[in-house]
Amino acid sequence: TTNGSAPLKRVLVTGGLGYIGSHVVVALLSTGQYQPIVIDNGHNAYDEALKRCAEIARDDLGAEAPQPILHRVDLRDAQAVDDVFAKYDSEGGIWAVIHLAALKAVGESGEIPLAYYKVNVGGSMNLLESMEKHNCKNIVFSSSATVYGVPETIPIPETSPVAPESAYGRTKAMVENIIQDLCRAPRKDQDDGLRAVSVRYFNPAGAHPSGKLGEEPRGRPGNLLPLLAQIAVGREKNDLKVFGTDFPTPDGTCVRDYLHIMDLAHGHVLALNALTVPSSQQNIFSNCDPKDGPFRAFNLGKGKGMSVMNMIEAMRKATGFDYKYEIVGRRRGDVPDLTADPTLAEKELGFVAKADLDTMCRDLWNFQTKHPNGYGN
Ligand code: WQD
């Protein structure tokens, strides 16, 4: 389908039903240039999310808005992944991949590491193999600040050593290495092989300002913000547990760099635009050492650290809810502070996480109160 001028470029979004994935789909749709094709196994998401994306796109662009396409596919099923690529070969193929599908709970990854390696690493290998086979050369990979482990310096620059402290973090670091080795592989010419940007997220928070899209994991949320929202709206009991107050941080609780989900989603579009600039022009790979291939990693964060207590207070302010909490022991894999140095992404991608904490909490609360029972049945 075309938007009246150039034909839409197909972008495969793995995990596109998820919290970050669905907001990335909205960011792609609202440019009017991309046709998002989602593959997701629905393990931690609802199809309803994509209906909301389509609704938002129509609100933004009118009836002509591109509509997302969904294929229910599990990345562990190599044939099913390849069938999706093959389906579009005769129509010009898939132009780029934004790869978000993964298991992503830091604590859980220590309990079921093999599941994390099979999905996050095995699934990525199936995807990368099909990209190679079907000549798809552009990938934005969803990585994570957790690859830094306990960083040497805060705020964390991209040059900080990759030394993950959790199985989850190790799967993300491993896939970055696999992708980088593919980018390094010998190629016929500069533009012929895989080009990649790994975006290392800090902590996404909030929801689309329309209140139509938000974070709806299946079951009790593991992450702090959606849990605080569900407690305030009465979906979860007012029994928050704070995992440790003995960290070397101002108030003893972990510090994280929270950024608005729409800023993060927009960061993916900026990464995609940057990595597809042909090598005949100055681009983000121009200064890469040829032995390293066209691979770049960028932190997507705000550069502002907030503690667990800060977040509880911010959500108390946004919801008017009087949270009760119990202080318990540390959660496996948690590190004291993950705050980004966001200057490289700003300089090279034009990425700035603008929305402030109150906006994140207000948008999150707006979504939660509009859909007290979420996307669920
Ligand atoms: C934040 C803080 C918890 C719940 C997330 C993603 C992960 C990765 C990194 C993407 C921590 C504390 C939480 C609770 C608590 N991002 N907490 N009680 O661990 O930073 O991980 O960002 O790749 O995929 O999940 O975020 O929200 O789980 O925890 O005290 O009930 O809140 O200990 O200090 P985290 P989180």
TrEMBL record:
Pathway: Carbohydrate metabolism; galactose metabolism; Carbohydrate metabolism; hexose metabolism. Its EC number is 5.1.3.2. It is an enzyme of class 5 (isomerase). SUPFAM superfamilies: NAD(P)-binding Rossmann-fold domains. One of its GO terms (biological process) is galactose metabolic process. InterPro entries: Epimerase_deHydtase (IPR001509), NAD(P)-bd_dom_sf (IPR036291), UDP_G4E (IPR005886). One of its GO terms (molecular function) is UDP-glucose 4-epimerase activity. Residues 11-274 form the NAD-dependent epimerase/dehydratase domain. The keyword Iron does not apply. Keywords: Carbohydrate metabolism, Galactose metabolism, Isomerase, NAD. Signal peptide: none annotated. The keyword Membrane does not apply. Its cofactor is NAD(+). Coiled coil: none annotated. In the N-terminal section; belongs to the NAD(P)-dependent epimerase/dehydratase family. In the C-terminal section; belongs to the aldose epimerase family. PANTHER family: UDP-GLUCOSE 4-EPIMERASE. Homodimer. Mutarotase converts alpha-aldose to the beta-anomer. It is active on D-glucose, L-arabinose, D-xylose, D-galactose, maltose and lactose. This is UDP-glucose 4-epimerase. It comes from Kwoniella heveanensis BCC8398.
